[in-house]
Design goal:
The structure is a single chain. With 156 residues, this protein is an alpha/beta fold. It has a single domain, classed as 3-Layer(aba) Sandwich (Rossmann fold). It is 35% helix and 20% strand. The chain contains five helices and five strands, in the order E-H-E-H-E-H-E-H-E-H. Helix 4 links the parallel strand 4 and strand 5. The longest helix has 17 residues. 26% of the residues are buried. The structure holds adenosine-5'-diphosphate.
Length: 156
């Protein structure tokens, strides 16, 4: 059976930290679906279309990686895509506490789906999408934190 992982997130924007997690996971899975969760009550800073285009640009020569968006429960989205793994990244204990709750809830919903956590390389530890958005909103340059940042288009 193929090992398919869903890497869910808001990816608003997809940072070098997320990129690092995907690169590490490539050796573990046959396919990785980078899955942008769309929350109808929460607006994003970067448009969904540009976030998709941006992530695709980072992995365009890699047939293992695809990008999708979804609105359902993550576990339901996994089932539709025959994915038995959820991939998440960990930076610190704060991430750990939060991620543990989500993974245990997901496990209660769908015991056949396992969450796999990868710890980012230390140089990407400080990267955080919400801080990067604040920098961008205030006119700062985010190129050191986001590869191909020029592809992103804001919704404002
Ligand atoms: P969410 O809105 O679901 O928290 P994010 O887009 O912020 O989505 O993050 C998606 C996943 O990537 C989460 O597991 C998060 O902990 C992880 N992540 C975010 N930034 C980094 C980073 N710099 N290094 C490693 N993992 C990260």
């Amino acid at each position: 059976m193929k090992k398919i992982a869903v890497f869910p997130g808001s990816f608003d924007p997809f940072t070098k930290g997320h990129e690092n997690v995907v690169h590490k996971a490539m050796n573990l899975f046959d396919e990785i679906i980078i899955s942008i969760g769309v929350n109808s009550t929460k607006s994003s800073y970067y448009s969904l279309e540009s976030r998709k285009k941006h992530i695709l640009s980072l992995f365009e020569n890699n047939p293992k990686i695809s990008v999708q968006s979804y609105q359902s429960l993550t576990t339901e989205f996994c089932k539709v895509n025959q994915a038995n793994y959820i991939l998440r990244g960990l930076r610190d204990v704060k991430d750990f506490e939060y991620e543990r709750s989500i993974s245990q809830m997901n496990h209660a919903l769908s015991p056949e789906i396992e969450t796999v956590f990868l710890i980012t390389d230390p140089i990407f530890n400080h990267l955080n999408s919400s801080i990067i958005r604040e920098i961008a909103k205030n006119g700062g340059v985010i190129d050191n934190f986001v590869t191909n940042a020029q592809i992103l288009v804001t919704t404002l």
